Amino acid sequence: MIDFVKDVRLWFAPQRLRAEGETPDYRFSLANERTFLAWIRTALALVGGGFAVDQFLPDLRWGVRVGMALALLAVGAACALRAVHHWVRCERAMRRGEDLPLSPFPVLLSLGVGLVAVAMMVVVLLGWTSRP
Amino acid sequence: MTRPGTAVRDAGLQPERTRLAWRRTTLACSVTAVLALRQALHGTGSPVEVGGVAVIALVWVAFLWVAHRRIRQLTAARPAALTPKAAAGAAACAVALAVFAMAVIV
């Protein structure tokens, strides 16, 4: 937790990130940046999915619809924040010449998305919609 | 052989690929912003509605600004690394859209 707070302070202090180790080959930094952007797109897609559930599934019960939408939005926001966190950690590891950090997040996200998909199937199959 | 005045560019086209990644992300942000607008607009013209549209427009312009600055930096042959501020700014736009959605839906 304390490490996380330190990392968050790095977000707004480029000079402190630059003070760590040596500048790696610019191509590694660019690859890290593209990975970061891919995560941001994932986050935006999840947020878009949240909007879509609320807008395009009016037949779902209010509780199910709002619950699904909020879950997608919360995961989307977490995904965006985690993208910055992981980008900073990778950048610092590259500067220090350390191994890149491992993270359980991709597995958790995959499981979460899979669970939402299964939940939607159950909702549709059992006909938990407000209209017959 | 390189012409004088032109720096050697990476054969893997890394700056170009990164620039395209920013463009893709801008597109994703635009689509999400349009979905947000669709959510915010009811056709009543109430102050809340106008405020919502203004917030979405602001978030979208902020993202465009961050992306545009970075895309311009990436025209260099050996661009500097992304700054933490720009990364946090791009992520903040995604989080802002999510928070806006939560506020509207609940």
TrEMBL record, chain A:
It comes from Streptomyces katrae. Keywords: Cell membrane, Membrane, Transmembrane, Transmembrane helix. It is found in: Cell membrane. Residues 27-93 form the DUF202 domain. Its main location: membrane. The keyword Nucleotide-binding does not apply. GO terms for cellular component: plasma membrane. InterPro entries: DUF202, IM_YidH-like. It is a multi-pass membrane protein. It holds the Pfam family DUF202. The chain crosses the membrane at residues 36-56, 62-84, 105-128. This is Membrane protein. The keyword tRNA processing does not apply.
Automatic annotation (TrEMBL), chain B:
The chain crosses the membrane at residues 21-41, 47-66, 86-105. Residues 11-74 form the DUF202 domain. InterPro entries: DUF202. It is found in: Endomembrane system. It holds the Pfam family DUF202. Keywords: Membrane, Transmembrane, Transmembrane helix. One of its GO terms (cellular component) is endomembrane system. The keyword Cell cycle does not apply. This is Membrane protein.
